[in-house]
């Protein structure tokens, strides 16, 4: 299944294969950003998933030793292709990708004014799609088990020193011990989304960008130091239970992105 995330935070699920038949309903308009969630346990067999992949993707899925890992990889790639096909009006297997200098994927078709960012964790996949606005999306979890993994103060402090800025580390230290793991995960997710939007990915040190740890009451405008030409917006996304997700949208000057739901 997959679903759109409404502005109110709800997640609406629709069948993965539906997007092949509704291209006319998934047109991208201006400042809209579509968010699609997919869950792996609602799709068909590994062979079915591989049917929509490129030859290279199929070979990559066959290199995994565990079938669960192969299924997760194939699902995320198939879900990305199905989502983009719904916006482009083509077959999933016909979509081609190119990689930027630091590995960021874009559509190989230069006539398609469609930008996207994909992320996944566990059984979940997230795809964000826009009309010509660069995006960075990330999802991490399971946040419910993260507290147990990062509950040791020494381990969390070590990770914080490698990921957070000095001021973010100070912010983390002011929180109760029980709140620190979740706050760290939120900051990490924001940073990865931001670095994806910049096109650098983790080739740029996460400590060089500051996103803060406090929950966002409203989307935040990112400073001109990072995006001097266009404005950029940081969103904390509503996500399935146990997950944490963030989105960065590089908007045009004076524009505020809108996360639009769409029904079938």
Report what the structure shows.
There is one protein chain. With about 260 residues, this protein is α+β, with helices and mostly antiparallel strands. It has one domain: Ribosomal Protein L22, Chain A, CATH 3.90.470. The protein is about 30% helix and about 25% strand. It is built from seven helices and twelve strands. The strands form three sheets. Strands 1, 2, 3, 6, 7 and 12 form a six-stranded mixed beta sheet that branches. Helix 2 packs antiparallel against helix 3 (about 65-90) and helix 5 runs parallel beside helix 7 (about 175-200). The longest helix has 22 residues, at about 65-90.
Summarize this structure as a short list of keywords or feature phrases.
264 residues; alpha+beta; Ribosomal Protein L22, Chain A; six-stranded mixed β-sheet; four-stranded antiparallel β-sheet; 7 helices; 31% helix; globular; disordered N terminus
Low-confidence parts lasting 5 or more residues at pLDDT below 50?
1-25
Percent helix range: 25-40%
Fill in the CATH topology.
Answer: Ribosomal Protein L22, Chain A
Radius of gyration: 18 Å
CA-to-CA gap between the ends?
13 Å
Overall domain count: 1
CATH superfamily: 4'-phosphopantetheinyl transferase domain
Briefly, what CATH class? Alpha Beta
* Shape field: globular
Helix-strand pattern, N to C?
EEEHHHEEEEEHHHHEEEE
Q: Can you give the mean pLDDT?
A: 83
| Helix-and-strand structural type | alpha+beta
Blueprint (SSEs and pairs):
Elements: E1 2-5, E2 11-14, E3 32-39, H1 46-50, H2 55-62, H3 67-88, E4 97-99, E5 105-107, E6 115-121, E7 124-130, E8 135-141, H4 143-149, H5 153-163, H6 166-173, H7 177-198, E9 220-222, E10 231-237, E11 243-251, E12 258-259
Parallel strand pairs: 3-12
Antiparallel strand pairs: 1-2, 1-3, 3-7, 4-5, 6-7, 8-11, 9-10, 10-11
